[in-house]
Every structure is written in structure tokens, then in C-alpha cells.
Amino acid sequence: MELSTDLSKINGVGPKFIKQFEKLKIKTVRDLLWYFPFRYDDFSKIVPIGELVINQPATVQGYVNKISVRWSWQKRISIIEVLIVDDSGGIKAVWFNQPYVAKILKVGTYANFAGKVVQYKNEVHLSNPTYEITSSRSSAGTMSGPKHTAGIIPIYPETRGVTSKGIRFILKPILKEIDHIEDFVPLEILKKYNLPELNIAIKKIHFPLSHAEAENARKRFSFEELFLLQLNNLKIKSRLAQEKGFSLNIDSDYLRKLTEKLPFALTASQKQSLQEIISDIQRPRPMNRLLQGDVGSGKTVIAALAAIMALKNDKQAAFLAPTEVLAQQHFQTVTKLFPEFDHDVCLLTAASAKKKELLRDIENGAFKIIIGTHAVIQKGVKFKELALAVVDEQHRFGVEQRAALLRGHKIIPHFLSMSATPIPRTLMMTVFGDLDISLITELPANRKPITTKVVAPENRPKAYGFIEEQIKKGRQAFVICPRIEPGQKEEGKFITEAQKRALELKSVKEEFEKLSTKIFPHFKIAMLHGKMKAVEKGKIMKDFKDKKYHLLVSTSVIEVGVDVPNATIMMIEGAERFGLAQLYQFRGRVGRGEHQSFCLLFTDSSSITVQRRLDSLITAKNGFELAEKDLQFRGPGQFLGGSQTGLPDIAMSALQNAELVKSARSAAEEIFSNDPDLKNYPLLSSRFKKFEKEIHLE
Asked: Which residues make Cβ contacts (< 8 Å) with residue 289, sequence separation at least 6?
């Protein structure tokens, strides 16, 4: 049996199983072996029935003494009860809606039963235990021993028709028969970082003798994915260092005069970041840099100055923003700060008028700075000579979209990505590990800290009163909601708890109606959401900025980039529904003017975890500390959006382990520095080529 063997050729795997496995994208032996458990039930302790304790997970071994099947007509389900006895006593095992159990278990059968001991109406029983018929007393954990009881039992992500028990049933014989699998991780790396060899790890991740064995096997697979990712980062950096880029001539005096004309002084870290970028774009190899800074720290002006340097070299620069609102704002910022370049700057979005003329002028080089949305990377957009590509909020674009901006040019453009979403250290070392990093660590002068409060349901009227006072003083307020439409529930239709919670979410339309008619009928209120047309959104934002509205009720469409200095209140409904990084972004929409600003987090949840999360927004000293907490609370999959990175799940979860990330980085540097082409490691070279295709990071 080999890794490439089709599951249809394995004994015991019928057509029905094959069909269900395909839903899980499992077709070959390799697919199944690399389908890892997400948790383990500990039934390793075989306990005499007389010594069982309520709420204890355990395995008992005994004879089936009695079987009964009855129906609960009220609930229309079958109830199977089996009395199990051993030398120390007897206990009932109960299964719901599994009538086949009574056909398999016969009186006199000797079996293992693994489950939790529960008490219901003064009766103690095993609830829905996993059972396994044996001929004698079992010894836990051996490859020839039980698959489903008397051990550390793996639990897998399931689908209809494929249970963890079914997966274990097929896996155990495969693990006995599979040929030796060659390990691509170099032996010296495994030894140095105390990691198990592949064949051992694959057995131990599925059928460990202890939790420690399972954890060590999982650590090995996490390490190998991070190791490949770090090799990929090193290769990208090395390749870019050898590529030809635009070596731009920088007139230092001109740049100094340009910055001196700005209506504000650059902060120390803005100057440092600008210097790092300018240094990069003078070199004849492509820059690959991340400009990281808090909301409102002034990243756009730094990118704009770099773009003007490209313009002064008669080259082009492209700004890519995730939303039309943000693209428009970048356009306004650049043309307002640098009016002398008005005729060189254009805005390209899906809603742009006279698009054919615009595309023609971009292609012939009439426009030097092109600011836009995804429209900038669509087919039909051709640049004359693109020397600088700037992507704002990089984590919001898929890796393929980012690559599309740099593809198809004779000379690779310099690449600058910007992010106001604070990125935790482990993510910087891995997902963004191919980038050089510039940090803007302080906010512009005269910015006042934003007062943040969590508002309990009983304090809602008081909060409304406070908002009214602020608006009467001439200020404005944002109100953020998690949904657009009010939730609808079909009469009599069963809904899950998750669906019920979703229906309870505040919606923009409901909130707009409530605030307009009941809470603040004397104020002018506007509504903004992603389903509106770009022109409509742009007009509402402009009118709000021009103080034509007192409140703006919006979805997360205003999360990034919106700049309204007179808005001093950020009111967030259903705050527990957003990640900390997102809440941090919302809060950054206020506090951009001279007045004291406030962020009010409304939640109806009494959950301690929710309270801890929201409190961390108040106590975190800066965005980076908050990002680390967000990573702990939500995990990297939600933080980044797993589909945006292309990383396997096991690597995504491993990003929370800073020590493992550091080890993988050190191991990759050790191998790459001595053998960048991996000539001495043919197995690693082969696996690495597949990895590059899998994550689309080229």
C-alpha cells in the first residue's frame, strides 16, 4: 500500500464511504493519513464498574447482561438500553436513535464501552458510549489493540455519513500496512529540535498512547509547515535581491522642501520609515516592505511621498485600497496635500466615469499616480512603467490579487504594503516574513487618547443622553452595526442557536429607524452600508464630513481609512461580534481632531470571556499588544482570514506558538544559508516545490 493508493482499493471502504469521504476532499491514502484529529477523548483508564464516578470519562469491560429497545413516542426516537456487568457490579448504557446497536450487541457479548458516566433522574448510566467487541481483557493503546476504547481516542472533523469511529476503523489497518514513508525534513533538524520522525509521528497523531505523544506528533507537523513557509520567505527575499528593479534617483533637497510644505511636521518614526523606503527604491532591486502603524499615524503621506519620487523619475505608482470609500479618501488626501500634482493623479474604481479614456491615459503614462480599488488589477489595465505598487490593508487582499499587481512588468515594481491592523510578532515572522518592516510607532502631535467604555444594557439610556450632549456641543457620531438587514425568521421553522443569535444582531436598518424615530428624532441621521452604490456611499460620506448629518449609522464599511475630524463618538452595537483588531480600527475613526473622543462598546452579553475581550481594548497600551491578545482569543484563522494566506489549518493554528515559529525560522535559515537550491536535500526540494504551488505565494 502506498500514499497514492486510491481509497476505493482498500478493503472495507465501500462506494458509500468513498462518496462521503470526497466531501472531505479525501480520495487517497495520503489524504486520509493527513486528516488529523482535532481533539482526543481520554478513555485510557479501564475502570471496574463498581468504582465509576459521575461525570468521569472511562472505559469499562464487561458482559452484555440484558438488552431492551423502547420508543419515546413524544420525541419519536428509539432508546436502546444495555445492562453491562463485570465482577464489581453493573451499569446501564443508553443510546438514542441508534437501533442498530441492539443488532450488534447480543446477550453474553464481552466488550469495551467508553463514554461519560452521567446521572439522570437518580439513575447513573453511560451516555451514548463507544463500544468495541473484544474476546478478552484489552490492553490500551497498542496498534493491534482497540481502536475506539481503552486509550486516547482521536476525534476527527466529521460529515454526514463519516464518523470518527468510521475513520478510526479504516485508519488502523492502513497504518499497519502502509509502506515506509520517506521523511523530507532533514534528520539533523529533527534531532536538533527534538521532533519525531515522520512514520512515528503519523502513527502517534492518530493513535497515541498519551496526550504527550499526540502533542509531540502535532508539533512535528506544525513545525514542518512553518519550516516550509520560512524557506519560502527566504527564497522570495533571495530571488528579489537578484531581480532587476527600478533604481530611482532621489533629489534629497526637493524631498526635504516637499515635506516642509506639509501642514504638519512628520513624527520621528514617519521620518525613519520614509528614509527606509527611499533607501530601498534607490537600489536596483525591488523593494518588498510593510509599513505598519496605528490608525491615523500618517502612513498615507509617507506612501504618497514615495509615489511622488516615482513621478519625478517619470515613472508610475499605483495605490490599491480595499474599499471605494478608502480609495476616494486616499485620492482626496494626496491631491489636498500635494495640489501641484493634481493633473498627475487619477482615481480608478468600478464606478469611474469615462473609463476607456482613463485606461488609455494610464497606459500612455499621462497619469503618474493611480489610486483605486480592485479595478486597478483588472484585465485591461496597462501601465506605461509602474515603478511602485502600494497596497493598503494588505491582509484584506488575497495573495493572488497582490501578485496580480506585480505580474506582467518587464521590471518588477517596488512593493509597499501598508497596514493599520496591528500584526502580532509571530505573524510578522511567518505570513509576512518575506517583507522588510517599517514601523510608525507614535501618533501625530496633539492627538488626545480616546476614552473607551463598555456599556451594559442597563446603562444604555445614560449613554444616549451623553451622545445627545456631545452632538449639541457640535460634535458628530458614528454608530456601527454588524448587519445590514433585520433578521427574518420563517414561522414555525426550526433554527439553531447560532442562527438565533445571528437574528438578534442589531441591523443598520433597524438601528437607523430606531435612532431616527425614537431616540434622536431631532437630529439628522444618515445610513451607510456595502450594498449601496459607490456614488451614493461617496455622497453620504462627503455630506457627513461636511456636517450635514449628526449621526452616521453604518456597517463595517467604515472600518478603514475614513477621516472625519469632527466625529468624536464611536458607538458600536453588538461589540462582541467583532474581533479586537476590527474594534481597534473602528475606534481609530474618531480622535482625529482637536476634541476629546469616546468609543462606546454596547453588548448584551454577560459572558466573562466577552467582558475580558472587550476590557482588553481598554487596557492594551498599543495596537501591537492588542493584536497579541486578539490572536489568543480568536486564533490566526479568524484574525487573518485563512483563505487569504492559503496556509494549511495546522500551520495556521501553530502561528500562536511563538517558540515553534522561532525554531522553524532558525531551521530554515540554517538549511538555506548552506544550500539555497536544496541540492543536498532532494526530498525536501521536491516537497518544497509542491508547497509553493499549494500556498500560491509566488
From this structure: 276, 277, 280, 415, 416, 417, 435, 436, 437, 438
Strand partners, 309: none
**Cell numbers given for 580:** 479586537
Of 228, 241, 43, whose CA–CA distance to 145 is shortest? 43
Cα 251 from Cα 249, distance rounded (Å) = 7
Q: Rounded to whole angstroms, how far apart are CA atoms 562 and 569?
A: 14
Instruction: Answer for the pair 127, 94: CB distance below 8 angstroms, yes or no.
Output: yes
Domains (ranges, CATH) in the chain? 1-38+156-179 (no CATH), 39-150 (2.40.50.140), 252-440 (3.40.50.300), 451-488+495-619 (3.40.50.300)
Give residue 484's region: left, alpha or beta (phi > 0; psi -120 to 50): alpha
CA angle 435, 441, 446 (to 5 degrees): 145
Mean pLDDT value across residues 482-509: 53
Distances (CA, A) of 630 to 183, 538, 570, 627, 674: 35, 31, 20, 5, 37
Q: Are 526 and 551 in contact (CB under 8 A)?
A: yes
Which tens digit of pLDDT belongs to each residue from 229-287? 899 889 888 888 888 889 999 999 999 999 999 988 999 999 999 999 999 999 999 99
The x, y and z cell numbers of residue 71, run together, are: 420508543
Rounded CA-CA distance 61/151 in Å is 13
pTM, two decimal places: 0.65
